[in-house]
């Protein structure tokens, strides 16, 4: 018999009544009722109410114990009366009458309470993360994370995938985010990089003749923190498949995700066959390639309307002549909303750095007209055309933004989210997945004005390889895809370019010589020249999946030991300075900033 416990704190029921048992755990709460002292004892599995009578000689000893002291109690299981049953816990039909107590671990004064889910400052929570993790909600989130990863492993094996581990110490990549670098003691002046993703290695696994690979892969990127992105490190379900097309990858992910989200959530899945939306359509209809399809609001392009003679809104007409675009967001049946609602949206847009959102509401008396600050500038015919282009009806309101494409997309994407929240249009009890497909292979770098890869440089371009028009690279689309759920990007993926000569040509467009490719991607390009299969894959983020399932808005709530916004581990004091001896071993010197 285990000397610390016969049962866990989530195990006892009235079937155990009148049995002598032992429990070990933390004192979660105490309630002193004068002659009786109640203790809620907590362990990983649940809570059991324990009680001791004042006549017991150890009453005063227990009375003095602090919350979070670790104790072992021995006593008899007693069935509770009907009026005292606690239906909120699995052990709520019983309590344990304490006969004996052993103190296993004392505690100092707590910097934060554990029994409450009250919000505390981030620095306190992260410095004392071991206490934060005892709290019910976050403790359950971390258990959920473990269960999700175990489920994924089992399902991937059922789908015929083999799990392999790829190196952590590797070479620096010229693409993507900043690398974390590790100096080499045995090779002075040279550095390893921690992998931003196992991208090249998983492709090499396919070249090695394995058919389906996966791993729960740690990835390291020196990026700034966001609510949905941890600074420093994260985990992803990394997978790759040989002899596949885009649809084969989609089939695996849809099969896995449907099972996963149905197993761990009661929320409804809106589309069990995930919709496919082209990148171009997503940017027009939603202003983002991460659309939340629970939101019914859509954006339409109205640029051509402002070339009409019967539209007199000169400010927009002048901007359109100089190359600006106009897009519109329609809100359904908002004619009865007060003026403050519309002005509030306009003010919000200005607070975001925009010039604001023009708007009008469609009405009909003798004829169709527009009510609102700019309504008078539109003829009935122009309004009929706008209604046709936007699927708007009488009573709907149309918000307009005019400017550079990137600015219009940004403000209307944000407005779409804000208005939907203000009008309570989003069903929070649903998951809505979609694929974003047909990404452009290249884009113009806004800083250098040069052509660069838009997504993944190792992707296969669409079309017949021998007939690609490389003279118009911005028109080339790639077999690249993202999977999105509720406005959160879970992953990017692609069918890979497995043809070395084509890779040289595509990298040349982005400014890389053949020698650059041979140096920077030597392992990859060399392997592809020895007979590589067509292959492709994807890598959904574990942290973001668990965020959705746990209904959390911040990735910190589903990560066991996260860093703060400045990529610091306050609990372990990392990053930290290292000794002169360590620097000497690594042939490094620290240059102090003046």
Q: Structural class from helices and strands?
A: alpha+beta
Number of contiguous helices: 16
Q: Bin the strand percentage.
A: 15-25%
Mean pLDDT reading: 94
Q: How do the strands line up in the largest sheet?
A: 6-9-10-24-23-22-19-12
Biggest sheet statistics = 8 strands, mixed
N-to-C CA distance: 64 Å
Count the beta strands: 24
- The helix content is 25-40%
Radius of gyration from the alpha-carbon trace, in angstroms: 30 Å
Shape field: globular
Unreliable parts: none
User: In oligomeric terms, what are we looking at?
Assistant: single chain
Q: What features would you describe in this structure?
A:
The longest helix is centred in the N-terminal third of the chain and has 23 residues, at 136-158. The model has no long low-confidence stretch (mean pLDDT 94). Helix 4 (136-158) crosses helix 15 (542-550), helix 5 (199-207) runs parallel beside helix 14 and helix 13 (514-520) crosses helix 14. With 594 residues, this protein is of the alpha+beta class. Strand 7 (181-183) and strand 8 form a beta hairpin. The strands form six sheets. The protein has an eight-stranded mixed beta sheet, with helices on both faces. Strands 1-2-3-5-4 form a five-stranded mixed beta barrel. A five-stranded antiparallel beta sheet has the order 13-14-17-15-16. The chain is built from 16 helices and 24 strands.
